[in-house]
Amino acid sequence: MFHRIIIVGNLGRDPELRYTPSGTPVTNFSVATNRTYTNANGEQIKETIWFRVSAWGKLAETTNQYLRRGSRVLVEGRLVPDPATGGPRIWTRQDGTPAASFEVHAMTVRFLSSREETEALAQSMGNAAPVDDLPSEEDEIPF
């Protein structure tokens, strides 16, 4: 059996690099994908799905070095199910509404933003300004 997922989106926050007790680097970051469609009533609906991504080894170090909040990426990997449910991780937002997050173990990460775009984005944003196409409710991510 085999499965693979490909997502294209923007980072919701700067990547976080850490090391396992055995010294293996692992970087975690979140990616938001957006879809806009028109419903039966003719209203434009914007849908955002968040993915929690982990990259390991050399890929972890590279993603941590070059990616920043707002960077556009293509991630190819495999879904990691929640051990308790076998599906996405289910949790409750601060406002009490239910939510789910999808976890992806990255095998490939392609940088779609140019170095200049990433540097300009980092300089203009600091860490507080929202990014176009990203929802401003960062607190909805459970990590």
CATH topology value: OB fold (Dihydrolipoamide Acetyltransferase, E2P)
According to CATH, what is the class?
Mainly Beta
What is the multimeric organization of the chains shown?
Answer: single chain
Main sheet attributes: strand count, strand direction, barrel closure: 5 strands, mixed, barrel
Strand content: over 45%
Number of distinct beta strands: 7
Second-tier CATH architecture: Beta Barrel
Q: Find the CATH superfamily.
A: Nucleic acid-binding proteins
What number of domains? Answer: 1
Distance between the termini: 30 Å
Computed CA radius of gyration, to the nearest angstrom: 16 Å
**Which strands sit side by side, in order, in the main sheet?**
1-3-4-7-5
Helix content, binned percent: 10-25%
Residue windows where pLDDT falls under 50 for at least 5 positions: 127-143
Task: List the helices and strands in order.
Answer: EEEEHEEEH
DSSP helix count?
2
